[in-house]
Design a protein that fits this description.
This protein is an alpha+beta fold and 626 residues long. Helices cover 59% and strands 10% of the residues. The two termini are 69 Å apart.
Length: 626
């Protein structure tokens, strides 16, 4: 007897140490709401691209901000005040609200590098005939609304490269300006586009960024009670999703625990029995969380919700102990010898079932399997070694024999329901066969805790911002930046033909903002030496109302451009083009990628088949349907 007590005391001490260790692990655990845990462990290139963009792409770092209520001047004033405060915050890389903060810097950059950036720079353009045609076009523009700008640039840029670039970079849809700030199409809200320094997968950093935006709005001198701030974007979704999952998991866990406790209390009619009966479940839950944390480095919120339900059967173990040991005297060692093998078999059966989840290609499902297996093992172990030592000497629960006899009589009469049960089974099979095509929902969006109201707000703000809902992407891969940019230029040529045929409204490419080194050298080589160019200019002005002497600054600029340093990605910093290059030119996992989003014609859709077929002939080019 003394030996058994010592063994029981040792089991209790080890159990308490184990619980403390689990608590220590859980206190350092990162709880994730990233749905990439339910993407395949070995994704396809398209799936990997989607996961990379959601977790660390530029899109994941953008927050769309809207200011509603009040009147238009107040909203515009608040937009400028909030933007000014956020631009001084290191949390943010850029803040755009329509103010011309970088306009002068952008114009200077484009003008200084126009011969490296303009796709119109070719040897033919700088021949005598090409110069004559370009000069004629520039002179014609003097009578247009852009005449003042063209007149000021004509001596230095008679071929109109600057106007080409402005048309090219301003071709995208942008929000309209109201009172000097971006506004929605209906003018009901001011708009702002904010880029955070942290990636969208860093939920804590995104939460701090959202708090900084709210604080800047609340502390703006012009803030009124009628003005309201709204935000959306992947980072905002990640924060609200985490909060929603935490809130719902907590609420559902408390609710389920309360229901189980109430049921057991009605049956046991003993608070001590209730407390002891829940110990295996609580121990199993803690062990499951700690095991997933050690095995995966993070615990997904959905794992907590489903996993706790999966190990709910652990409450049965204590019921077996209480009922069966009482029916066979108070000798708990007798229960261990007679009934524990049956309980153990049930545990092993459950573990075998959940073990299949460990082999899943989806990390989220593997987490569920590990959580359930670890939880059941610990719950069963606590029931076997710890719980008998904690039971009081004269432990008794409420006599349930009357309930058992009643249920037994009901079960004996269940045979009369065999024909109705067979009919229900046949009806269920018929329903399954009839709806076999739409029986399963395989869309990951169904797992998203983002509310429909948040999705609708995101749709409205994106439409107001003029951002197309891009479905199709062309992805070019390579081992270095230069090869990717060269390939992007070849793809751009093909896509431009689709634009000219009306199949596409447009497309984006990083090579538009940062041409490859080879292309830049080709454009430099297109600029003739100064003596040759001077002769060609004299020939080109024949028949035009200008004199060759007017274009001496043009000769100076082309001579300088022939030997100017080629553009690098770092040269675009502090310009508006930097965000575009960051979004479209990506280096991840030792590989470079260029993203070319396609925009459908207004009111129409993209016919993907011919574009996909044309791109299939190009190596390392992927056509992605997002």
């Amino acid at each position: 007897m003394i030996h058994m007590r010592r063994r029981g005391a040792a089991a209790i001490v080890l159990w308490l140490i184990f619980l403390l260790a689990c608590a220590g692990i859980i206190s350092r655990t990162h709880f994730s709401t990233d749905l990439s845990a339910f993407m395949p462990r070995t994704p396809t290139p398209e799936q990997q691209l989607l996961m990379d963009q959601v977790s660390d792409g530029l899109v994941s770092r953008l927050i769309l901000v809207g200011i509603e209520g009040a009147d238009a001047p107040t909203r515009a004033s608040l937009s400028r005040q909030v933007a000014q405060r956020l631009r001084a915050d290191r949390t943010f890389v850029s803040v755009n609200n329509g103010e011309s903060v970088n306009a002068e810097r952008d114009r200077n950059f484009l003008f200084d590098n126009r011969y490296l950036l303009s796709p119109a720079v070719t040897p033919e353009r700088f021949s005598a005939d090409g110069l004559h045609a370009a000069l004629s076009d520039s002179i014609d523009l003097l009578a247009s609304p852009a005449g003042l700008l063209v007149k000021s640039l004509l001596p230095r840029d008679p071929t109109g490269e600057m106007m080409q670039l402005l048309d090219q970079f301003n071709s995208g849809t942008q929000p309209r300006l109201v009172e000097g700030a971006w506004a929605s199409r209906d003018g009901a809200r001011a708009l702002m586009l904010v880029q955070t320094r942290a990636s969208g997968s860093d939920t804590d950093a995104q939460q701090l960024a959202m708090a900084a935006i709210r604080q800047a709005f609340d502390q703006a001198p012009g803030a009124t009670a009628s003005a309201r701030l709204v935000m959306t974007g992947p980072g905002v979704f990640s924060v609200t999703s985490r909060d929603t999952i935490k809130r719902q998991v907590t609420r559902l866990s408390i609710l389920s625990l309360a229901l189980i406790a109430t049921l057991l209390l009605l049956v046991y009619r003993s608070f001590s029995a209730l407390t002891l009966g829940l110990l295996p479940v609580i121990s199993g839950a803690l062990a499951g969380i700690a095991a997933v944390s050690l095995g995966f480095g993070a615990v997904h919120g959905i794992t907590l919700g489903f996993g706790t339900a999966l190990i709910g059967e652990a409450v049965d173990y204590s019921i077996y102990l209480f009922v069966q040991s009482e029916q066979n005297s108070a000798d708990h060692q007798s229960w261990i010898k007679r009934f524990w093998p049956t309980v153990r078999l049930g545990v092993l059966t459950s573990i075998a079932g959940f073990a299949s989840l460990l082999l899943s290609g989806f990390p989220g499902l593997a987490q569920l399997g590990l959580y359930a297996i670890a939880g059941l093992i610990v719950a069963a172990t606590v029931t076997r070694f710890v719980l008998p030592s904690l039971l009081p000497a004269n432990f008794r629960i409420h006599d349930l024999s009357a309930v058992g006899r009643t249920l037994s009589r009901v079960v004996q009469r269940a045979a009369a329901l065999r024909w109705p049960a067979a009919i229900v089974l046949l009806a269920a099979c018929a329903i399954v066969v009839t709806n076999r095509d739409n029986l399963w929902n395989n869309k990951i969006a169904s797992l998203s805790p983002v509310s429909q109201a948040d999705v609708e707000l995101d749709t409205r703000l994106r439409a107001d911002m003029g951002a197309p809902d891009v479905r199709y992407l062309v992805v070019v891969s390579g081992t270095n930046q230069e090869s990717v940019l060269r390939a992007a230029e070849r793809v751009s040529t093909l896509l431009q033909a689709q634009v000219e045929q009306g199949e596409l409204a447009g497309f984006e490419s990083p090579s538009r903002y940062l041409p490859s080194v080879a292309t830049q050298r080709e454009r430099q080589a297109s600029l003739p030496p100064r003596p040759v160019l001077e002769t060609r200019v004299a020939q080109a002005v024949q028949g035009l109302p200008v004199r060759a002497q007017l274009f001496t600054p043009f000769l100076d600029d082309t001579a300088a451009a022939r030997s100017q340093p080629l553009l690098q990605a770092s040269d675009l910093q502090q310009t508006s083009m930097a965000m575009a290059v960051d979004a479209l030119l990506i280096q991840q996992h030792g590989q470079w990628r260029a993203l070319l989003p396609l925009t459908a014609p207004e009111g129409g859709s993209i016919d993907a088949a011919p574009i996909r077929a044309a791109l299939n002939a190009m190596p390392d080019v992927l056509f992605v349907d997002m």
